[in-house]
Specification:
By secondary structure, the protein is mainly alpha-helical. About 55% of the residues lie in helices and about 10% in strands. Helix 1 runs antiparallel to helix 5, helix 6 crosses helix 7 and helix 6 packs antiparallel against helix 9.
C-alpha cells in the first residue's frame, strides 16, 4: 500500500516542509554525491548516528567492516550533533525518494496546523526522539543510523491525531494486481504503524531498517502535536477550510 496523495487542502502556504525536502535533496547531491562511492560511505560514517560510539560503549579503534575489504574505524570521540545531522543523510535513491514522498504528502498539513516555527521545532524533536528510541533498542550498535524517516514518523503520528478522517489515495500492488483506493488517514497510518511494530519485534536487526526509530518518532509526534498546537490555531484552520472541516479532530 503506497500513498499517492491526500485530499486535505492547507490554508497557509507550506514553506518549511518544502525547504526540508530541498535541503535533503541538496545534501544528497552535494555531500553524498548522488550516492557515489566512496562519498556515500564517507558521509554516512561522518554524519550518521552510531549508537555504540555515541554512548562510548565501543572501544576506540574498533574496526567495523562495510564490505569489499573496507572498514571504518571508531575513534571513541562521540559527535553529539549526529542525532540531527543523521536526519539529513540517506542510504540510497529509494531511501531518499520514499522519505521525501511521505513528507510531501503529510508534512504540509502538520505545518499548516502548527505554523512554520513550531513545525521546525516539532520536526527536529521528533527526529531526536526517534533516534533515542532506536538507541534504547540497541545501545551498543555499531551500524550508522541515517534518514529522515524517524522525524517523518512523527509527522505521520501528528497527522493521525489531527486529521484522522482525511481521505488518502492509496496504490495497492499485489503481484500483477494493481488498483487504487481511497481510505481514511487513520487506516493508512495505522497500517503503516503496525508494519513498524511487526518489524521492530520480529526483525533480526540486520535488515538495515530502524523500526524502533519509526515507532519512537510516531509516538513523539502524537505527544508533541498536543503540546505545540494551540486550540486557537487548530480552530482557525478548521473554520478556514470550510467544507473540509470534518477532517480536523478537535481536542
Amino acid at each position: 500500500m503506497i500513498p499517492i496523495k491526500d485530499e486535505n487542502p492547507t490554508y497557509y502556504r507550506s514553506i518549511v516542509t518544502y525547504i526540508i525536502i530541498i535541503m535533503n535533496v541538496l545534501i544528497w547531491i552535494f555531500i553524498q554525491k548522488l550516492g557515489t562511492h566512496p562519498d556515500l560511505l564517507n558521509s554516512i560514517i561522518q554524519y550518521g548516528l552510531i549508537p555504540g560510539d555515541l554512548l562510548g560503549l565501543v572501544k576506540p579503534g574498533t574496526q567495523v567492516p562495510v564490505g569489499d575489504g573496507l572498514a571504518y574505524v571508531l575513534d571513541g570521540k562521540p559527535n553529539w550533533l549526529t542525532p540531527v545531522t543523521s536526519m539529513f543523510m540517506h542510504g540510497g535513491w529509494l531511501h531518499l525518494i520514499g522519505n521525501m514522498w511521505f513528507l510531501g504528502i503529510f508534512g504540509d498539513n502538520v505545518e499548516d496546523i502548527l505554523g512554520p516555527v513550531k513545525f521546525i521545532i516539532f520536526y527536529i524533536l521528533c527526529g531526536i526522539c526517534a533516534a533515542a528510541a532506536q538507541i534504547a533498542a540497541d545501545p551498543s550498535s555499531q551500524i550508522p543510523m541515517v534518514g529522515a524517516s524517524g522525524a517523518i514518523g512523527g509527522v505521520m503520528g501528528a497527522y493521525a491525531v489531527m486529521f484522522p478522517r482525511a481521505p488518502v489515495h492509496m496504490l495497492i500492488i499485489f503481484g500483477f494486481f494493481i488498483t487504487r483506493i481511497i481510505v481514511p488517514a487513520f487506516f493508512m497510518l495505522g497500517y503503516w504503524f503496525i508494519l513498524q511494530l511487526i518489524g521492530g519485534f520480529f526483525s533480526s536487526g540486520m535488515g538495515g531498517v530502524a523500526f524502533w526509530a519509526h515507532i519512537g518518532g510516531f509516538f513523539s509526534g502524537i505527544l508533541l502535536i498536543k503540546l505545540l498546537c494551540t486550540a486557537k490555531r487548530a480552530e482557525e484552520c478548521r473554520l478556514r477550510r470550510g467544507t473540509t472541516n470534518r477532517m480536523i479532530s478537535r481536542y
